[in-house]
């Protein structure tokens, strides 16, 4: 909790409270608030942390969690390499409430179609959470590597266990070929709608 002190100060300033006002709400002295913010007092009891979060009108998790780094969507292109294979990229962890009817755990990568790129089922400006994986777990949209080309296809499993592909414009299933490989499951899409 080395960054707790600066976070308390930042949240206090966001709440437009001076140290004395925050101290009254939490039930401590303003000197204690100064010690917390400077890091002179590093350990704060659970009851005080709860009171502090309530006084700052923020969730306790925001008070305690490490500050997150800004996540920038990666550009999805129709050619390799995969967007998350180009350097160090931090994945996002989606709360289960945000992805109903999806049975997926683990990190996802936030991507958006690159300018000038067209993908079935995606529009320009869409934000997409893709879970990198070569496993089929449930029917849905997947990122497919076919030779050296990336496409988005609806993938389903037939009663005989074979995977089938479907494009957005074609209403019949296409056969899975030896050159096709799953590289990611699209677990969420956010589309911008004009106001």
Count the DSSP helices: 5
Q: What CATH architecture of the largest domain would you give?
A: Ribbon
- The proportion of residues in beta strands is 15-25%
Order of SSEs: HHHHHEEEEEEEE
- Strand arrangement in the largest pleated sheet: 1-2-3-8-4-5-6-7
Reported for the largest beta sheet, the result is: 8 strands, mixed
Provide the low-confidence segments as ranges: none
User: Within the CATH hierarchy, at the fold level, what is the topology of the largest domain?
Assistant: Umud Fragment, subunit A
Helix content: 10-25%
Q: What would CATH call the class of the largest domain?
A: Mainly Beta
Radius of gyration: 24 Å
Question: Brief overview, please?
Answer:
This protein is an alpha+beta fold and 195 residues long.
Summarize the structure in words:
It comes from Halomonas ventosae. This is Helix-turn-helix protein. InterPro entries: Cro/C1-type_HTH, Lambda_DNA-bd_dom_sf, TransReg_Diox_bact_type. Residues 8-63 form the HTH cro/C1-type domain. Keywords: DNA-binding. This protein is α+β, with helices and mostly antiparallel strands. The chain has two domains: 4-64, 434 Repressor (Amino-terminal Domain); 74-190, Ribbon (Umud Fragment, subunit A). It is 22% helix and 24% strand. It is built from five helices and eight strands. It has helices at 4-14, 19-26, 30-38, 46-55, 60-64, and strands spanning 74-76, 109-113, 127-132, 140-146, 149-157, 163-166, 174-175, 180-190. Strands 1-2-3-8-4-5-6-7 form an eight-stranded mixed sheet, with no helix packed on it. β4 (140-146) and β5 form a beta hairpin. α1 packs across α3 and α2 (19-26) packs across α3.
